[in-house]
């Protein structure tokens, strides 16, 4: 009897052990091992946003994207700063400087810039070179401390207050250049001629004034001059009003100036392109799994007269979309220097704590299918270097060149029109003689 009880005891013990194990496993799978804090949830939120929309998902396999999320969550995240650092470390292996976290202060500054109000800082619009990670000047804002100091497009930012922009990243570098009016920032620069220099800049309020116009008169013609320095929220309406005003003053031609326009809202750039193009393709966008049909302009235009367009190395992103559309549709000759070459489009989203996330979600192609990322757009005519430092001023040689080109175009059209009329008269005379 004892032996039979013992023989039953072992199976029961095993069954009991199995049941206990099952219970433990069941408890593990039905209850979370720990609750995620706000900082960890923010990391997951950022990861999900990138995972859902990033342009090149093949990159995820290369960098083991899922493991990067896990690695980020393994580190202590007890406050916002630790969460931000974890997100930035997680995004770094993507190798895309435009997919980035914007901390709340930087996010607010970017939103203000897109609205077109004033900003406090030195007035440098920056980009990042993918091939070497250098932070470079796309353009200085007109009337800014950077512009007054003669900083030009293509200048490399080597240090900001002793810190390396390569280590800081694009957004943190821009943030360190901003600050209260009257404060100083020391910047080490590598100029396009490879000269290294260090300068001190005093931050101040910079009026963005994205749209500027004037009339230019010479002995035989009146031209309209339209300069767009960025594509912020209110720019399409301002451009429309400017074109209507210039057209009402009987201009013979238009000089569109996109120099040092580093871009902004793609939607604003498309709206301005629509002012000049009638039922023509503006741009194609390439997303993660398809190339969308070209976005085309409407039938009506605000200005359909002769025009030339000035571009330079500071012409980037949304302004390159406009320049490429004008060139490919043979609507306007591009003159100046090669453009910057930023052919990527970012979406900008709010994160739950007031920070923002910029994610590269598309690239764009010009109407003829050109991908200009890191390549830029070659103008139809290169203008003589060095480039003028104050676009639109009386000392602007390139603007004078644009006037001469515009005048030659108009004179050629007038001669051609005159010859056409003379040919028509001769043909009518010949027909009349044959009848007689």
TrEMBL record:
Gene3D superfamilies: 2-enoyl-CoA Hydratase, Chain A, domain 1, 2.30.42.10, 3.30.750.44. One of its GO terms (biological process) is proteolysis. Residues 107-204 form the PDZ domain. It comes from the Bacteria. Keywords: Cytoplasm, Hydrolase, Protease, Serine protease. GO terms for cellular component: outer membrane-bounded periplasmic space. This is C-terminal processing peptidase-2, Serine peptidase, MEROPS family S41A. It comes from Prochlorococcus marinus (strain NATL2A).
């Amino acid at each position: 009897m004892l032996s039979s009880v013992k023989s039953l005891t072992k199976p029961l013990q095993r069954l009991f052990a199995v049941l206990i194990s099952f219970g433990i496993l069941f408890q593990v799978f039905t209850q979370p091992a720990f609750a995620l804090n706000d900082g960890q949830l923010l990391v997951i939120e950022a990861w999900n946003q990138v995972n859902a929309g990033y342009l090149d998902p093949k990159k995820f396999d290369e960098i083991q994207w899922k493991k990067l999320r896990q690695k980020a969550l393994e580190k202590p995240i007890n406050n916002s700063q630790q969460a931000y650092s974890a997100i930035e470390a997680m995004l770094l292996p993507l190798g895309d400087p435009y997919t980035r976290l914007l901390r709340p202060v930087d996010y607010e500054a970017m939103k203000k810039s897109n609205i077109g109000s004033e900003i406090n800082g030195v007035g440098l619009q920056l980009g990042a070179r993918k091939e070497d990670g250098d932070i470079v000047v796309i353009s200085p804002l007109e009337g800014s401390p950077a512009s007054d100091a003669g900083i030009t497009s293509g200048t490399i930012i080597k240090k900001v207050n002793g810190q390396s922009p390569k280590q800081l990243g694009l957004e943190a570098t821009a943030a360190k250049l901003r600050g209260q009016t009257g404060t100083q920032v020391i910047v080490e620069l590598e100029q396009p001629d490879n000269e290294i220099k260090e300068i001190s800049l005093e931050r101040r309020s910079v009026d963005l004034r994205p749209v500027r116009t004037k009339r230019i008169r010479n002995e035989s013609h009146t031209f309209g001059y339209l300069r767009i320095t960025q594509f912020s929220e209110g720019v399409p309406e301002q451009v429309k009003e400017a074109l209507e005003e210039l057209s009402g003053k009987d201009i013979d031609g238009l000089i569109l100036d996109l120099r040092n326009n580093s871009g902004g809202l793609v939607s604003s750039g498309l709206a301005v392109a629509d002012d000049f193009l009638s039922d023509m393709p503006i741009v194609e966008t390439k997303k993660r799994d398809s190339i969308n049909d070209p976005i085309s302009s409407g039938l009506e235009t605000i200005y359909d007269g002769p025009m030339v367009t000035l571009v330079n190395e500071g012409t980037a992103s949304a302004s390159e979309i406009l320049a490429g559309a004008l060139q490919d549709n043979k609507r306007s000759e591009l003159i100046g220097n090669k453009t910057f070459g930023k052919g990527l489009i970012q979406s900008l989203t709010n994160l739950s704590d007031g920070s923002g996330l910029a994610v590269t979600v598309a690239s764009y192609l010009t109407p003829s299918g050109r991908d200009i990322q890191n390549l830029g757009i070659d103008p139809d005519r290169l203008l003589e270097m060095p480039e003028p430092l104050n676009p639109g001023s009386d000392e602007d040689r390139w603007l004078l060149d644009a006037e001469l080109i515009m005048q030659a175009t108009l004179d050629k059209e007038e001669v051609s029109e005159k010859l056409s009329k003379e040919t028509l008269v001769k043909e009518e005379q010949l027909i009349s003689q044959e009848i007689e």
